[in-house]
């Protein structure tokens, strides 16, 4: 179609849905192939090869992702009619924002920010976040706001793959970086206990609701999209702070120090 | 704010708006500092140092941007009540999509795709586009759909800086690449005559409507946002195809050839 117009879609052949077990395996295979634990930045970070400024750049940019998670979850709940599902989902927001007195994941992330020498108010301001990080994270929030609930829940299932990376990270950071201790890494330690509950619920919900081949494809596509959201954040970090091509307006070493 | 909550906003001091001339100079300074003609990928491309596969990767990813421009313009027109403004804006869609018989910018881009050895249907399918490119381009379409009309028009003003980069590109590609001729480069040649009309209108509209310091700040922020949209696409291209860190699922050399 030299004018860029689209060819007619191929006739959809009706297919059998995969069994629950086979579909779960399909979702796990997406993580095995595409989850960001395979990105070279994580090998560098966990292996102790990141400079202090590379760690700071990671903390600043990953903060933006953390800070948008409760907004993503609120966008999801804003579309859920079932009080039971909203009630179940609510704990995700509580985990990140905290409850009166008790700090949440965002506060724990800012504790990490302070431990690596950053001013927590600078990090919380979102200044200096890489544009590519913003675009990816905002694409995720909008995906959850705009897409069918099944796709939205499926996009959260990268949590299935998170406990391993968090455990590796705690071990690697403790071994290699002076800033790392149980206080500065409390975000990851806490996620180790929080994530499995969310995963168990989200995975069961997706396996229950993806009851046709078409819905299974949509859920797999949503999880794939989410792996792109995570991967592209590390690509941007690598280009800007490992390769040293910091885009105009992004954080530069020396800014935002405590 | 160690819990990540925001400090109260500073008292807004009411400021004088800049004069028309001073405000136009402020907008042009944003281009001088941040437009993607300053990105190393363009020096590489125009200087003849891109491999055929680097050129193909650029054509595939830049196609995605081109393909979303008429959708962006339709999103803008969908919010404009003034028939005169919609009528003025309509030519942007016609320029890209063409009119019966006459090819538009998207068809001309696919002519370039074929000239560099790609299957135009592969390029038009959007397969293999870098996720970071999708996130940036979709952020632009949504910005125009969601933000005030002034911000939306201001975000189009990167066109002010395009004629120079198109002229440099035509000259550089013709000098350095065997695929380059007046047919394969017709997209850029045509933009040289189309863009100035759009720029003259868009710039005058923004200068007319940004009549307070706050609106001038918003217009400047919108133009800055747009420079980020363009820059981050080249960063992603560089990381994937110059540095060779192709993210999962993105185009790999050899795919999509004619």
Can you tell me about this structure?
Chains A, B: One of its GO terms (molecular function) is pyrroloquinoline-quinone synthase activity. Chains A, B: Ring cyclization and eight-electron oxidation of 3a-(2-amino-2-carboxyethyl)-4,5-dioxo-4,5,6,7,8,9-hexahydroquinoline-7,9-dicarboxylic-acid to PQQ. Chains A, B: Keywords: Oxidoreductase, PQQ biosynthesis. Chains A, B: It catalyses: 6-(2-amino-2-carboxyethyl)-7,8-dioxo-1,2,3,4,7,8-hexahydroquinoline-2,4-dicarboxylate + 3 O2 = pyrroloquinoline quinone + 2 H2O2 + 2 H2O + H(+). The first copy, chain A, is globular and about 60 Å long. Chain A has one domain: Heme oxygenase-like (Heme Oxygenase, Chain A, Up-down Bundle). Chain A is mainly α and 258 residues long. Chain A has eleven helices and no strands. The N and C termini of chain A lie far apart (57 Å). The mean pLDDT of chain A is 95. In chain A, 67% of the residues lie in helices and 0% in strands. At the A-B interface, helix 5, helix 6, helix 7 and helix 11 of A face helix 5, helix 6, helix 7 and helix 11 of B.
Outline the fold blueprint:
Two copies of one chain form a homodimer.
Chain A: H1 20-34, H2 40-46, H3 52-77, H4 83-97, H5 105-115, H6 120-125, H7 131-146, H8 149-155, H9 162-176, H10 186-209, H11 213-242
How big a fraction of the residues of chain A is strand?
under 5%
**CATH homologous superfamily designation of chain A:** Heme oxygenase-like
Shape-level CATH architecture of chain A: Up-down Bundle
Query: What's the CATH topology name of chain A?
Result: Heme Oxygenase, Chain A
Percent range for helical residues of chain A?
55-70%
CATH class of chain A: Mainly Alpha
Q: Report, as a whole number of angstroms, the end-to-end distance of chain A.
A: 57 Å
**Estimated structural class of chain A:** mainly alpha
Individual helix count of chain A: 11
Largest interface: A-B, 48 and 48 residues
Spans of at least 5 consecutive residues with low confidence of chain A: none
């Amino acid at each position: 179609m030299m004018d860029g117009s689209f060819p007619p879609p191929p006739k959809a052949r009706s297919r059998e849905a995969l069994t629950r077990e086979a579909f779960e395996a399909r979702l796990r295979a997406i993580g095995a192939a595409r989850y960001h634990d395979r990105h070279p930045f994580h090998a560098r970070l966990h292996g102790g090869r990141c400079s202090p400024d590379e760690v700071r750049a990671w903390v600043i940019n990953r903060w933006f992702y953390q800070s948008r998670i409760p907004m993503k979850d609120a966008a999801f709940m804003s579309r859920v009619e079932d009080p039971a599902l909203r009630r179940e989902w609510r704990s995700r927001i509580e985990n990140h924002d905290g409850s009166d007195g008790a700090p949440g994941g965002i506060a724990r992330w800012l504790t990490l920010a302070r431990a690596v020498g950053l001013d927590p108010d600078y990090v919380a301001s979102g200044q200096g976040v890489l544009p590519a990080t913003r675009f990816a994270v905002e694409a995720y929030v909008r995906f959850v706001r705009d897409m069918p609930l099944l796709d939205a829940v499926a996009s959260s299932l990268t949590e299935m793959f998170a406990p391993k990376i968090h455990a590796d990270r705690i071990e690697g950071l403790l071994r290699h970086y002076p800033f790392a201790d149980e206080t500065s890494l409390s975000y990851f330690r806490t996620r180790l206990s929080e994530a499995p509950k969310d995963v168990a619920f989200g995975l069961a919900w997706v396996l229950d609701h993806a009851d046709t081949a078409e819905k299974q494809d949509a859920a797999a596509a949503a999880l794939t999209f989410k792996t792109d959201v995570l991967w592209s954040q590390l690509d941007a970090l690598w280009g800007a702070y490992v390769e040293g091509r910091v885009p105009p307006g992004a954080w530069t070493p020396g800014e935002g120090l405590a």
